From TrEMBL:
Xref: Pfam families: Kinesin (PF00225)
Protein name, per record: Kinesin-like protein
Occurrences of domain Kinesin motor (ranges): 242-575
Sorted UniProt keywords: ATP-binding, Coiled coil, Cytoplasm, Cytoskeleton, Microtubule, Motor protein, Nucleotide-binding
Amino acid sequence: MKYCNILFLSHFVPHTAKPARGMGAATVAVGPSRGVLKQSVASTAAKGGNIRQSVAPAATKAGGGGTTKRHAWDLKGKVSDMEGKVRNYQTKFKSVNQENEALRDTMVQRQSKMVEMEKELKKQKSQISEYEEELQALSGVREELEKVSSDKSTLQKELSNLEGKYKVMETLRDSQETELQTLKMKLSVQESTLARVQGTLRDTEEEVRSLKETVAQQEDELHAGEMERRRLHNTIQELKGNIRVFCRVRPLVDGGLSKHIQLPASDVKTITLAKTEESHTGKTAETQKNYIFSFDRVFGPMASQQEVFEEISLLVQSALDGYNVCCFAYGQTGSGKTYTMEGAEYDQARGVIPRAVQQIFRAAEKLATQGWEFTFTASFVEIYNESLRDLLYTGKASKRPEHEIRKSTNNEVTITNLTYEKVSNEDQVLGLIALANQNRSTAQTAQNDRSSRSHSVFQLDIEGVNVGRDVKCKSTLCLVDLAGSERMLKSQSQGERFKEMTAINGSLSNLGIVISALANKESYVPYRNSKLTYLLQSCLGGNSKTLMFVNIAPESDSFGETLNSLRFASKVNDCVIGTASANRK
């Protein structure tokens, strides 16, 4: 222990003191004690450097001028000095340790206080955030307060305006109260007037009810009268004959009448053909042979289109009454059939077809006031070289469909693939007729520049319904323009024209055969011998009212054709067909 103290103290001996030569071992042993000193110095460094202040006086005593310097051989003295120094240092070390302990306690207290301060800081921060939120809320309240203040000023202005208006309204109220009193007086007067008017109204209502009953009764009587008119009209038509023949003589090109045609002025139903025959022996004078024919009506060259139509207008009316009606024109080429049936464009020259269409639509308009509603469907077909062609077809010629005549279960004749157009007025029908005329087959012959080379058949299907009376009717108006009959020598037809003439004459010949069979009341009537007779089967021998125009040419060189046409027409006139009945439900 002494050696350690010596070595520890020797470290702090001033370097001016020279150690004894024999003390090398003690001097070498000073190294290990340095760490202890350094540790003490480090522990006291926190106290502000007090160790330096302690060590310095000791060094002064050991090697200063105030202490007797010991001899080198005085080791015991030196040891005692060193022991004193050690004691001094130990004392100071204890005090330093105490100070360290005190500092440690202070530090623990400071740490606990710091934790408390951190908690207080967090608490303060939380309060600050709350205060910030309250501040934000207060800023919103401030804005709202400003807005409320602004609204308050606005409302105050409005209030002042309303107060002004209120004063105006009070003034207006006073004036209106005055007016109200006046109106109450007028109202009392009006109420008394209203009472009188209501009494008059009740009387008027009673009168209206009475008039309605009278109107209903008159409508019933009108309907009954219409039904009676139709019955009487049909009776008149039946008395005239369900198949009638009219004869019409075309005027000469230069006007007048041929000598071989005689029309008695007092008889409008007779026509006479006079032919002068020379004596074959020459001994006797020329003789005149007369051919007398009687028809339902004969029209001379001066008869107008209107006169002709007036005779058949009652027959056209039958179509609206529910009866099938057929009208066709027969005669040689150039005798005026197409003119009779179609006429010219200007009104006075319009023919049977446009006038019939006009009458149908005008009569339908009148019947509409009695509760009738009509629908009309038009079609136009021609028979050319015994084949059917749709005259209302507007597609490509290469895609033209084929047509066949079919008979339905109720014996109605129809044509397959035919164009049927719904029409609602006269102009639509006339447009279809114009289209059909463009498509019809015509050609030039020696007898006519534009001769019809086919039979054309215009059909108008009519369906009527009277909802109030629960009555329906259905009929067909059929208007036919036959191709002209002609002789090969007179028409000078060749090639394709000759083929057409042969087909035309063949179909007309078959028409004559059918008429003869009907006139003779034969059990079998060959309707299927030609497309024409098959198509007109219902008109010739079925449920139809039929009219035939026989048109004759007045030229003397047409005497033979005229005679044949009149003979054929006479056969038709002698024909008796069954009584037509109305198609009503």
